[in-house]
Design goal:
mainly alpha, single chain, rod-shaped, 64 residues
Length: 64
């Protein structure tokens, strides 16, 4: 009997590339995780805060 060179899935997990529906679900999982990042991070807020303080200091110097 000739042996076939078919890979055996030892862990019994299904390959998401073998089925279009499973592949789309696999891709959508990666996209859902990527979009959960916050829009404003600490650096942006610190930069905006520093700009507001700088403008306030310059305005105070100009007024006096």
């Amino acid at each position: 009997m000739a042996e076939q060179n078919v890979p055996q899935n030892v862990q019994n997990e299904q390959d998401p590339g073998a089925n279009t529906q499973m592949f789309r679900a696999f891709v959508n999982e990666g996209q859902a995780e990527a979009t959960t990042e916050p829009k404003l991070n600490g650096r942006v807020l610190a930069f905006v805060g520093a700009a507001v303080v700088l403008i306030a200091v310059v305005a105070a110097i100009v007024v006096f």
